[in-house]
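Report of the visiting student (M.T.), summer placement. My assignment was to run the structure pipeline on a short list of targets and document each run. The first record concerns Thioredoxin reductase.
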Amino acid sequence: MDRYDIAVIGTGAAGLSAVINAKIRNKNVIIFGTKELSSKLSKAPKINNYLGFYDLTGNELKANFQKHIEEMEISITEEKVNNIYAMGEYFALMVNEKMYEAKSIILATGVEYTKPISGEERLLGKGVGYCATCDAPLYKGKIVCIIGYNKEAEEEANYVSELAAKVYYIPMYKGAYDLKENIEMLNKKPLEIVGNKKVEKILFDQGELITDGVFVLKDSISPSQLVPGLDVSENHIMVNRLMQTNIDGCFAAGDCVGKPYQYIKAAGEGQVAALSAVAYLDSKK
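After the run finished, the structure tokens were exported:
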């Protein structure tokens, strides 16, 4: 397995700035995210405070970002990182049924806007999971409930339905759903995941559902759940001026480290994080 020098998680201004600066310094780098880059950037009607790019729409600035990484031949790995574990000399990044390794990581995940369901964090690893394709074999012949926040969750639900005795799908978004016939869809709002030592049931605004496991499939998960042991305060990753976290070799930049939520601030922090990661790697030689 190839071990990268730096793994960047996130394709907003901070993540793209980090990967560009890491590549300029000849590091073997991989970036996880979406080729569509930042969805928040697309919604910006006008940007006037990004130095050198006056009076641009979010989509225009996004096109400039896209051109920059294409010119530098940087490719984006469109896979969701579910967990990151510090292994001493490297980090293990869990991506569905695969694993990547990197000597250092830069978190540029943005702000997690989806609040956890009551009981979700307490029962994480005790029947609550964030990767259905990873843990589906554990629920062979059992009842599984999938709370999906995006279309990609439907693919995972279809996969789980091949193993589980029964799958319930709770969409947290509107649209057409492409689910197998043996999946039962519930248009109810989940209020709480209940259980003592393991998941027992889900409480809804109307009624409840007995289940052996619950997969909560979001666009992104909170940093503290993504990287166990990470120091987080009020949903923001704690860093110093070098964008270092409390975990050796782990850096963070952008909205995930705090306000102001500005693109130019995120890009600057991404550069600092990349330079700090490079310095960290060089110190290990």
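Helices lie at 13-24, 39-42, 58-71, 132-135, 152-160, 223-226, 263-283. Residues 5 and 28 are 5 Å apart (CA to CA). I thank the supervising group for their guidance throughout the placement.
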